[in-house]
Amino acid sequence: MSLQDRRNNEGYKNWLRVGLALLATRDGLTNVTLRAAKELHAALKAKLGDSVEKCTCNPKKKEECKDCKSWRQELATHYKGNKSQIYWTNCTPNKWSKEPWEVAKVFMPRGQSIGNIGPETSDTSALLNFLVHCKCCNKYVSVKATQKVGHFQYSIP
Ligand SMILES: [Zn+2]
């Protein structure tokens, strides 16, 4: 297919439109997700302090140390949904007391990288999952509407 043919292909045009819509959705969620992450982080830090900075866990080996145990327990209380679906490997626990976005990554789909350091480096799905699964976000969004968008995104071939 030539470039000219591709540009005139309705399926290709729709694919581009959906991609642009997902980017616009992500941009629209940037402020609210960052605000929610900061609020959750402030509440956790006020309650738990910063001893988690001493954490020596290796998330890739699924080892948990005592320094991050209280943070994990508290984060799990904020998780809405099946707690076995929390992907602790998304995070670096010794950053939890310093970086709000590292806390938000607890609520995101598996596979978040260390390069995901804010809404701008997250994809739409990650932001929607944070909004759906974090109880702190419920005051900002309609979970039902958020799930509809997430379902739509997953159904795109
Ligand atoms: Zn630890």
TrEMBL record:
Pfam families in UniProt: DUF4559 (PF15112)
Top-rank taxon: Eukaryota
InterPro entries membership: DUF4559
Gene (UniProt): LOC118428243
Protein name per its UniProtKB record: Uncharacterized protein CXorf38 homolog
